[in-house]
Each structure stands twice: as C-alpha cells, then as structure tokens.
Design a protein that fits this description.
heterodimer, A: mainly alpha, Arc Repressor Mutant, subunit A, 2 strands
Chain lengths: ~100, ~260
Amino acid sequence: MQANDAQTLVLCALADGPLHGYAINAAIEELAGERLGPGSLYGALTRLESKQLIEPLDGQGRQRPVRLTPLGREVLEHELRTMARVANAGLRRLGVNPA
Amino acid sequence: MSVVARSLVRLYPDAFRERWGTMVEDEARGAGWKSWPNLIVGIVDMWLHPALWPADSPAQRQRRIATMGITVALAAWFLSHLTAEQGDPLSSGLARSGIMHGCTALLLLGIALVAPRPRPTMSATITLLWWAVRRLTVPTVLGTSVVTVVHGGIDPMASPSTLRAAVLAGWWIALGLGAIQIPRIFTGVGADAVVPPHAGRLRAGVWTLAAASATGGATILGVSAADSSFHLLGATVGVGLLLLTAVCAGTLRDLRDLPSVN
C-alpha cells in the first residue's frame, strides 16, 4: 500500500470508529485534500471487506456504516509504521529534520 | 443527471449493487458528471474481479472464480475457433497448428480443473439438467438448424450471398450464445447442486488457462503480424486472448490476497 492508495486512505478514515461511505469520503478529503470518486471509494471498500480488514454494520436508511476489524487495525498500524520509517529515513537523507 | 448515475450503478454486478448500490448512487449524484469516468472504471474493475464481490461464504467466492475461469476458457476457445475458421493465418505451419492444439488441450485441462462438481444426488442432477436445457435450448436449436440446412442439400457457398451470410451468422451466433450460456448454468444452479473446487485446484486451473490464452494469443498475434499480408482478425483475436491472460493474472492475485478463499 501507499500513502495515497485508496485502501490506505479508507483504513485511516475508519481508524477513529465506524463511518458510512459519505463520511469516509469527507474524512479522506480532510486527510488528503481531495475526495475519492465513487468507483474508487466503493471499489476500495469492496476490496477491504474481501480481505476481512473492514466489516459492515447494520445500517440506518440508505447508509450502511463500516468499521475496522481487529485484523484491519493490525494491518493499518503495520502499514503506517512502515510508511513512517520510510518517510523518516527519506527526510534524514534530504537533510530535513523529521517532525 | 441522476438518471445517468442510476443507470451506471445498474451496470455493477448484482452482489456489489446489493451491498453498496444506493450509497454509490448518492455519492455519484453529489459529485455530478465529473464522477462518471471514475464510476465506469470502477464498474469494469469489479466485473474483472469476481472474487472480490461481497459474498456470504468462501464457497460463494470460489464458485464465482470457477465461473470466471469457465467464461475465460470458453471465450478463448471461441476466439481461437473464429481465427481458425475465418482468418486462418495458422494453417500454413505444422508447428503453429501443433501449438494451437496444445493450447486447446490446456484449455480443456483448465476447464476440468476449475469446473464446479455436481453434488452426487438425484435432485442436484435434475437441477443441473434443467438449467442446462433452459440455457442451451436456443443455441442448440440454432446450431442444429444451420447444420440441417448445410447437410440438407443446400450449399451456402453456391447459394445467394444473403443465404450464405445468414448461415454463417447463424452458426457463429449459436457458438457465441453457447459460450455465454454455459457459465450461466453454473451461476443459475447455486450451491445446492454444485460444489466449487478448492483453492489449490482453482489456482492450478486459472494458471493453466492463463498459460493457454497467453501461448495462443502470442502465437496468433505473431503469425498475423509477421505474415506477408497482415491479418486484422487474427491480430484482434491475438490481442483478445492476451487480455484474457491479464484477467487470469488478476484473478490469481485476488486468490493470493483473499484469506477467506484460502
């Protein structure tokens, strides 16, 4: 996964707790500066569900919230730690002090 | 605008639409026409990855992969047959035709590996036969009619061009319909009548189909492009077979990534 990968962004958006599709995209916009297209967002949700990283909850009306599974939380933490390690190493090599 | 969004969402596979359909529609309506290309890419992506669709059980995912495998095999067979019968840039070389026979053998092996097995019960056999009759009646009647016309003393080659075109069109429509309807038998019968192959056999089957379509595609494309006269039909079929290889490769990656299937 990469930082701007749709699946990573969805997992990050769900890290705080269950959200439905529209709220996930709003969180992604806050995180990455732009919303995902509907095909990308729901394609990512389908992939994550098939990998058992997220699970749907009973919905209200037309919206159906999803949440991270314990495996999803574990995978997200691992990915973010890897990204942080790479980012820190890259910044050090650039001579920039990592925040 | 909402009519277009709703129409596009209807193009998603049923399983996807049942889970996310209303939310995709809301999102697409909110984003407007700028979201349509992304939606179309998403629709194509989902159709190419049946293993990912929302499923009630791992067996349902395996059944979808098996159906996809049979679809790819029949599409590859149809395309190769089309080249052999209509374009035929392969007939001149014994080695080339040997390669194509090898590809056909690989396709048959792939089908044998990925095909769901009927449950050994009378009701499962009856259900399977009922669905086979339901799906294959039209192509069988059409194909039989063409064969009857040709063997009934009418020579399409010596007949007016309209009759010849009608006989040829009837034959290819019958074969094409058959290739489309056979996988639909397996989607129709459901889990009560057939058991999907386990993950290992599925993987072996999809690898075999990938090898068959890659070899066949590369051979037909190479021969069509390298011959003194360029064969457009052959080249198109070759590219089509290589695209089927890409579909198999995507399925193999899905199989590797999905814990529920493995």
